[in-house]
Amino acid sequence: MEPVITFYPGVTKWDIRKKVWDYIEDNNLANFPRPVHNRIPNFKGAYQACDSIKGLEVFKKTCEVKVDPDKPLEGVRLATLQARKTLLVPTPRLRTGLFNKIVPPEGASKDILKICSTSQGVKEYSVPIGLDAKVQVDLVVVGSVAVSEKGWRIGKGEGFADMEYAMMVSMGAVSQSTIVVTIVHDCQVVDIPEELVDTHDLTVDYILTPSKVIKTECKHPKPKGIIWSKVDLNLLGKIPILKKLREMEKEAGKDVTLKTELPGTIENPSLTEGEGAQDVVGSSNNKTLCSVRKTETTRPDGITTVYIGNIPQNLRVREFKTVLREHDAVPLRLNWQGAKRQAFLDYKDPQTAESVLAALEGLSITGSSIRAELAKSQRSPRNHGAAPRRPKSAEAESSAEVKSLS
């Protein structure tokens, strides 16, 4: 069956997300919460799609099931509890651990089990599972924004599903034979270019929709553990269990050198709590119409500012942050001026800014080719190029909304 959503050559992961989210909203295919942008969509027919899991042989045989906490997966969590299987749900943003085990009251009715399958029930009827627990997950169920019949999957851009799986590998909870299922609306099954699939990306074995069950026959290997060289101290500090896993792997003699411990790298001290667990950047193959002009922009404090122009009119700052994460372009500070279709990104030094310009060169967001160049410093004695000047502060320009990456 041909996908109802198609993409142009050189599409990025973010373009795919945006188009899927727009299609679901434009065609009223979603339930609460809305809008679906920046979420795993809670699509109409989600319970019907979830119910299909009961027919999978792997579900019938499994004892322990890990299901993401996304709203459209409530039906799978309920089916797991009704079948008296062990239900494990990741803790939100991995802040307090890896899993919570859902423990319904003894003799719980169907109505109570239904409450247990909701986000509120996960809070009220769960106990934390430590790294020393002998967990053996037979089936993993994840949400998706888009997925292909080949098994390629795209999440909402924060990378937590990929990180969760890698952490489960590290603690011995899953193996290459563990089955991964995703549940989506039919419109979310699209053609995803293979070049967008990276080594850290979690692939799926089954896709369940309201109308069909797809076995992907995907041969791409699943993550084989945490890629420590892609992890920095900020992420380590925000996910305490990640630090403990690192200590365990270090004791086992594994190389746990962090990204910021590699030669020639500099730690970014200003990333804030809202940053996701995305640990490998995506790539863009759309190399058209982006002008890069270099001007004198280094301030006395060493900070170098990159100007981004021609931002799509309806782009949200959260969506823009996702694009930056996927291109390894997370700044120390983001000065967002959406109304003017521009933004200013601060980086620690000129070398970092130059690498960001190279990463963003030719980038197209929803068909709009952005303009990326070094901004003109107000302190510079020279006056090269036509890049707008960066405001001295938030007070210097009332329309400038200064955002941290949170």
Give the low-confidence spans.
265-298, 378-386, 392-406
Order of helices and strands: HHHEHEEHHEEEEHEEEHHEHEEHEEEE
Number of E strands:
17
Helical content band: 10-25%
Q: Which structural class fits the helix and strand makeup? A: alpha+beta
Question: DSSP helix count?
Answer: 11
Strand order of the largest sheet: 4-3-2-1-5-8-9-10
Mean pLDDT: 80
Question: Which percent band covers the strand fraction?
Answer: 15-25%
User: What Rg do the Cα atoms give?
Assistant: 22 Å
What is the global morphology?
globular
Distance between the termini: 40 Å
Strand count, sense and barrel status of the largest sheet are: 8 strands, mixed
Description:
- This protein is an alpha+beta fold and 406 residues long.
- 24% of the residues lie in helices and 16% in strands.
- The protein has 11 helices and 17 strands.
- An 8-stranded mixed β-sheet has the order 4-3-2-1-5-8-9-10.
- The longest helix has 14 residues, at 13-26.
- The protein starts with 12 loop residues before the first helix and ends with a strand.
